[in-house]
Amino acid sequence: MLVAERARWLLWLPVAFGSGIALYFTLPVEPPFWPVLPLCMAAACLAFVLRPRDRPLLAWALVLVALAFAGFAAAQWRTHRLAAPVIAKPGSYEIAGRVLLVEPRGRGPRVTLGELSIEGIAAEATPAEVRVTLRSDGASVRAGDRLAVRARLQRPSGPLVPDGFDFARQAYFDRLGGLGYAIGPARILERGDHTGFAAAIARLRQTIADEARAAIPGAEGAVAAALLTALRADIPDRVWRDMQLSGLAHLLAISGLHMGLVAGTVFLTLRYLLCLVPSVALRWPVKKPAALVALLAIGFYLLLAGASVPAQRAFMMAGVGLLALMIDRNPFSLRLVAVAALAVLMLQPESLLGASFQMSFAAVVALVAFYEAWNLHRRRRPDTDDDAPRANRPWRPVAVYLLGVALTTLVAGLATTPFAAYHFQRIATFGLIANLLGVPLTAFWIMPSGLLALLAMPFGWAGPFLQVMGAGVGLLLHLAAGVAALPGAGVLVVQWPVHVLVLVALGGLWLCFWSRPWRVCGLALWALALIAALAVRAPDLLIDRAGSRLAWRDAQGAVHLWRRHRRDGFVEGAWLRSLAVEEARDFPAAGAGLRDGVGCDASGCRIRIDGRTVAIAFDPAAALEDCREADLIVSTRAVDRCPGEDRAGWPQMIGSRFLWLSQGIAVRLHQGRVAVETIRDRRGRRPWTR
Q1: Of 42, 139, 220, 313, whose CA is between 20 and 30 Å from 338?
Q2: Do 342 and 376 reside in the same domain of the chain?
Q3: Are 579 and 542 in contact (CB under 8 A)?
Q4: For residues 267 and 634, what is the distance between their CA atoms, to the nearest angstrom?
Q5: Where are the beta strands (DSSP E) in 62-140?
Q6: Closest by CA position to 358, among listed 502, 574, 510, 170
Q7: Cα-based distances in Å from 446 to 316, 385, 452, 471, 644
Q8: Which residues pair with 685 in a beta bridge?
Q9: 204 domain residue, yes or no
């Protein structure tokens, strides 16, 4: 059966390469360099010696093993190549550096600085880049300028819950060693009018974004600037929320959709214009120069998007399709998708872990596989409608278009929903309805007018086109707000373990890559993923590393928050998403008595969970007293164990030292057992955790 599918074996090459990358990133400790490449070469040599003609299955299995080792080696090499120092301890620093990127924000621009000099830090310990939010007086800063500022800096933070998003890992691969905000005015030391190509492109992006915001006021201008330049920092939070709840958030990130729209608009327009010239259309294959110009156009758009990882990936995918047109190949082929995926993973192995890579390729693979199957079905089915005169069917083009948009949206939505649920703990219930309107609006109104505005900007004629674009963006935002306001627009799900996502991905690939009936076995993997997802039980307790914040989920599923200091919306929002709730209740005030299974006094709180008592002690005396009555004690002061406590298993007391070293914990109490999961154990000891 596998031999009969030999023509589709090539599709599994990027899967094998990605498996090696995934294995590298899941290891708890950093592996040694020396064994990986020899193992890769040994597997490749064995595949060659076994002669693929005689033993094709075994030879191809060895090829996949060799590629897995190659992916492992690529991820390891990139990790060590991008190593850079991070801020050792939080504090106030005098910083001087070159502005690499300016992102406008309401309270002041956020800048990324390179070529750094930081007071009190040696050159070899200085980060490669830091990101600082300036005060409002820093609005005149431009990319390429060299500036000095006093800022409060800290190292990038890790996950807020076990298996949560690790910003420190992302910052590591961005070579970002510090984050913070200015506590003094920014002083421009040198204007960077002649600092190279990268700075010139950054200034151009900033100029385009400023012009878009000047021509289009409000949130519409911020969204228009984001679509043209990928500078999204000043999009209001309410717009982000509406777009996420409506399932339209993907329209705000320059990705495959936007690259495809730019490429398609340029290609079709130029090809149509060339066809109007008979001497050209009859002598030359006009699609090839049109494809070449479209390739140059998306290359320029890539630069305007800041050459971010999602934009690079989208450029590769669109570029491979345009190259296929230039050499008379089918651009809608799973083989081309596999080539693009392999190219992205070879250049940026870490992108495999990101939601953008996973969702983009899930959508593209599903769409191409669906239309391959659809075209095969059409070729096999006798057409009974062609004899009917077209004049009697004027509605058919409209119906075909609407059906195509609906099917495309449905297939892409089904393919990406599990990945969105894993990464964002939210499913957009009415995403299909919103995308049926939002995608055509973006494709036929917003993006074409934006392209015309870009072409007109050098001549000072961009204003009318930007106004048209702004009107389209306004309709898109109204659509998002209307869908987001519907009851049940966004369904929250509990944070899944990674094996659920692995089952979903393998099931989808099996279903899409094979062409014979046994492809439906992929549905069995999806069924296993569904069972595993439904079996996930949210933690009963979440505690941060400082012991200053705690979330408790009661028997009814409601979440109660306790905090020692002020509210932190970022941390608490991440906790609520991981627990699949929108809102939380505060713990009762001291002396208020028992309420919903929790009671507090001046020395601490007590919670009843699944028949067990959990105590939160605010002082050492209360912690020691709780040792006699509670099953689990969380001590926020310098007491780390109960008298005579057995340390063989999880301790009865979770003290401040344990909390700090664990980086935060999740506790589950079920059927009389206590399970404690730490962020530190989940992250392991890797270069980005040090």
Answers
A1: 42
A2: yes
A3: yes
A4: 63
A5: 91-103, 110-118, 129-133
A6: 502
A7: 23, 36, 10, 8, 69
A8: 29
A9: no
Looking at 579-629, list the stretches that DSSP marks H as alpha helix, in order from N- to C-terminal side.
620-626
- Work out how many domains the chain is built from and give that number: 5
- Distance from C-alpha of 481 to C-alpha of 477, rounded to nearest angstrom: 6
Q: Nearest CA to 420 among 278, 260, 253, 566?
A: 253
Which residues make beta-bridge pairs with 178? 130
Give the residues across from 361 on adjacent strands: none
Q: Which amino acid appears at position 411 of this protein?
A: V
Task: Please check whether residues 585 and 658 belong to one and the same domain.
Answer: yes
- Report CA-CA distances (Å) from 278 to 187, 282, 285, 294: 61, 6, 12, 22
If one counts every other C-beta atom within 10 angstroms of the C-beta of residue 282, the result is 9
Is residue 155 domain-resident? yes
DSSP alpha helices (H): ranges in 305-354? 309-326, 334-347
DSSP state letter for 584: -
For 249, the 3-state DSSP assignment is helix
Task: At 215, list the tokens.
Answer: 């021509």
Looking at the fold, whether 311 and 332 belong to one and the same domain comes out as yes
| 648 is a domain residue | yes
CB 230 within 8 A of CB 314: no
- Domain of residue 139, CATH code: 2.40.50
In this predicted structure, what is the pLDDT of residue 139?
66
CA distances from 465 to 205, 454, 457 (A): 18, 9, 10
User: Of the residues 28, 63, 81, which one is the last residue of a structural domain?
Assistant: 81
Inter-residue long-range contacts of 623-627, CB under 8 Å, 24+ positions, other chains counted: 623/653, 623/655, 627/652, 627/653
Q: Is the dihedral of CA 72, 75, 80, 84 positive or negative?
A: negative
Predicted confidence at residue 224, as pLDDT, reads: 94
Structure tokens at 212: 């878009």
- Looking at the fold, whether 152 and 283 belong to one and the same domain comes out as no
Instruction: List 112's β-bridge partners, or say none.
Output: 101, 131
For the record, the structure tokens of 10 come out as: 């090539």
Rounded distance, CA 531 to CA 105, Å?
A: 43
Q: Answer yes or no: do 443 and 588 share one domain.
A: no
Q: Which pLDDT does position 605 carry in this prediction? A: 81
One-character DSSP codes across 347-380: H-GGGGGSHHHHHHHHHHHHHHHHHHHHHHHHHH
Residues 672 and 590 in one domain: yes
Query: What's the pTM?
Result: 0.88
- Write phi, then psi, for 567 (nearest 5 degrees): -70, 140
What are the backbone dihedrals phi and psi of residue 558, each rounded to the nearest 5 degrees, phi first?
A: -75, 145
Instruction: Identify the pLDDT of residue 648.
Output: 46
Whether residues 353 and 414 fall in one domain: yes
Count of C-beta atoms within a 10 Å radius of residue 336:
19
Boundaries of domain holding 263: 241-382+396-492
Residue 216 is assigned to a structural domain of this protein: no
Tell me which of 481, 514, 534 is where a domain ends. Answer: 534
Structure tokens belonging to residue 651 = 């301790």
| Spatial separation of the C-alpha atoms in residues 525 and 501, rounded to whole Å | 11
Spatial CA neighbour of 96 closest among 4, 187, 195, 204: 187
Q: Verify that 77 and 180 share a domain, yes or no.
A: no
Whether 564 contacts 636, CB under 8 Å? yes
Residue ranges in the chain modelled with pLDDT below 70: 1, 51-54, 138-139, 193-195, 381-395, 397, 588-597, 638, 644-651, 672
pLDDT tens for 629-658 read 788 888 877 677 777 665 444 557 788 888
> ∠ CA(259), CA(264), CA(269), 5° rounding?
135
- Distances, alpha carbon 243 to alpha carbons 165, 449, 650, in Å: 20, 21, 43
